[in-house]
Design a protein that fits this description.
It is built from 21 helices and 5 strands. It is mainly alpha-helical.
Length: 461
């Protein structure tokens, strides 16, 4: 019995000794630890109370001089005075009586502390492992600023070596007598070259070619008008040289596009009559193509020109192109022009009316385009183009037939050739649309054409 009592007494002494040692080291750890390690610390001089005086603390040790403990995945002994980063595992080694710490391990065996994640983001940083005072940090920041200034100066020097200053470039241009010309000045020179009797045919053609580029802009076209260039180009439509006629019509069409002021001046200068003469007489295809382009530019959004076009027999002139050999490429252009003019008037009539719009509507009401189209049997002329093999041409013709349907329905119902053509087109586009769907294109091009064909067939029943 005394033997067991002796053993219990010994065990009690060991436990008591362990408790005492733990209490001593716990108190030492609590007094030595800092909340969290950071390279940037708040200086004591920055912490003041409301009276502006520095608070008096019991601990006179400078926190900037604390030594930092850098944990790893292995247990390491913590030396007195070292600050342990938050989140580290700390233990008391009962065999040696020393405190040890290491990084915690996650379930997958990898460290997931905030400090470790920060290190991974920042990579390896060459830092002093002892201590960092505020003066050292300030010196480091100063060095960084000096380095940044040096890099910026080096970059500026590199730029200076590659590029010359604008003042130097201006001086060199002045020495070379190089002058930056405006569009106006360039057009004046081109018009003079075109109008000069000393210029060769090639020089005149080159001048017109360059002018076409400049007059596309609305302001340049107005300047072109003010300097007399428009009338010179209109007169050029009477040239005996086909190439001059072609390029003159091209320049005229470019200047007329969406430019009401130039459109008015052109029709008053006799451009409409000259263009119709070119289209009605025997001319090369290239000349007629450019003349038709200029005519389209003049008629679009200009009801007065459309009215004059009908009075001068313009529809009959366009109709004659379908009887001339070698003019097939112009057919779809003519149909597209008729479609645009008819739809232009319809959209305007359906729009909201205002005082200004009402005046324009009255101008369009004087244009009797649709009755003239029906009277001259354009319904059949247009529908016959559905027999062409090109899908793009068919698309434009189908749109025009759809617009003419309201005026040509009875004529189309009695046209057996049209009925046969529509049936063939529906069979063809059903196959092509089905092939598109098999390829994953549910709303393809041929499905749209099939819809146009079915709509026309449905309206003719």
């Amino acid at each position: 019995m005394s033997h067991w009592a002796g053993l219990l007494s010994t065990a009690a002494k060991v436990n008591l000794l362990i408790l005492v040692v733990s209490a001593v080291f716990s108190q030492s750890s609590l007094s030595d630890r800092v909340p969290e390690f950071a390279l940037t610390k708040i200086e004591e001089s920055d912490i003041k109370d409301d009276s502006g005086k520095e608070p008096i603390t019991e601990d006179d040790a400078d926190p900037e001089d604390l030594e930092v403990f850098y944990p790893t995945h292995h247990w390491q002994t913590i030396r007195p005075g070292q600050a342990v980063p938050a989140g580290s595992h700390v233990r008391l080694n009962l065999q040696t009586g020393e405190r040890e710490a290491k990084l915690p391990d996650s379930e997958n065996g990898k460290s997931d502390t905030r400090e470790e994640r920060r290190r991974k983001r920042l990579g390896k940083v060459d830092v002093d492992s002892n201590s960092f005072t505020s003066q050292e940090l300030k010196k480091a920041l100063a060095k960084m600023k000096e380095s940044e200034k040096a890099e910026r100066k080096a970059h500026e020097e590199e730029v200076r070596k590659k590029f010359r200053p604008i003042e130097q470039l201006k001086e060199e241009f002045e020495k070379l007598n190089v002058k930056m010309e405006t569009d106006y000045e360039i057009m004046v020179k081109l018009i003079d070259k075109f109008n000069s009797s000393a210029s060769t045919l090639d020089e005149k053609v080159a001048a017109l070619y360059d002018l076409e580029y400049y007059v596309h802009q609305v302001d340049n076209a107005k300047d072109f008008l003010s300097m007399g260039g428009l009338q010179l180009v209109i007169d050029g439509l009477n040239s005996t040289e086909a190439v001059l006629k072609e390029h003159a019509a091209f320049v005229l069409g470019a200047a007329l596009s969406s430019n009401p002021k130039v459109q008015i001046e052109a029709i008053e200068g006799g451009a409409l009559q000259k263009l119709l003469v070119i289209l009605a007489t025997e001319q090369p295809l290239a000349v007629k193509k450019k003349a038709l382009f200029a005519l389209s530019s003049m008629l679009r959004h200009f009801p007065y020109a459309q009215q004059q076009f009908l009075k001068l027999g313009g529809l009959q002139v366009l109709r004659s192109l379908f009887r001339q050999k070698g003019m097939e490429t112009l057919h779809v252009r003519v149909v597209t022009l008729l479609y645009d003019l008819i739809v232009e008037k319809m959209l305007l009539e359906d729009s909201q009316h205002g005082d200004q719009m009402e005046e324009k509507i009255q101008q369009y009401r004087q244009v009797k385009l649709v009755p003239a189209v029906v009277e001259q049997d354009w319904c059949v002329v247009v529908s016959n183009l559905l027999a062409v093999p090109e899908h793009d041409t068919r698309e434009k013709v189908l749109k025009t037939v759809g617009v003419l349907m309201a005026f040509c329905k009875e004529r189309y119902r009695g046209d057996q050739a049209l009925s046969t053509t529509l049936s063939l087109l529906r069979s063809e586009y059903e196959e092509l649309a089905a092939e598109e769907q098999r390829e994953g294109d549910k709303d393809g091009y041929f499905k749209e054409l099939l819809g146009s064909v079915n709509t026309i067939i449905q309206e003719l029943r």
